[in-house]
Amino acid sequence: MDSSRSAQRAVIQFLRAEGEHSSQIYRRMKEVYGEQCLARCTIFRWCQRYEARRVNIKDLPRPGQAHVVTNSGTISAVDELIRQNRRITTREISVELSISKGTVHHIIHKKLGYGKVCAQCVPKHLSEDQKTARWELDPSATQEFLH
C-alpha cells in the first residue's frame, strides 16, 4: 500500500468529496496507515483546502530563490576557471560567474571533488596513472598509497 503524502492527500480528497467529516477521515486513515498516517492537523488542513475547491494534491511552490544555479553548465564553468588558475579563490569564482560563495564551495567540494592543498585546488583522490607517475618521481612515496 502506498503511504506517501500524495497518496494520503488523494484519499483525503476522495473522502471529503463523499461528504466525510474531517475527524472521521482522520480516524479511518489512522486505522489504515497506522504510524505512517499524516498528522491530525495536517488532515484537517487538507480538508479545509478541498472544501475551498482546491483540486491539486501536490504542494504549491514556495517563495524563495530557486536552486537552479548548480547545473552542468555552472559546474563545468567552475571547473574550467579552476583548471585555468589553480590559485583562484571562491570569491573570485563567485564574482566571475555571479553566484554565491556557498554555491561555489558546494560545487568545488561536493560536485567536483576538489580540495585545497597549498592554496591550490587539486583532486582529492589520485587516479592510477597519477599514482604511477608520482611513484616514478619518488619511489619512497609508495608508503603513502598503500594505506
TrEMBL record:
Broad class of where this protein is predominantly found: nucleus
Localization (cell): Nucleus
InterPro entries listed in its UniProt record: Homeodomain-like_sf, Transposase-MT_Hybrid
Lineage top rank: taxon: Eukaryota
This protein's GO CC annotations: nucleus
Protein name: Mos1 transposase HTH domain-containing protein
Protein species of origin: Araneus ventricosus (Orbweaver spider)
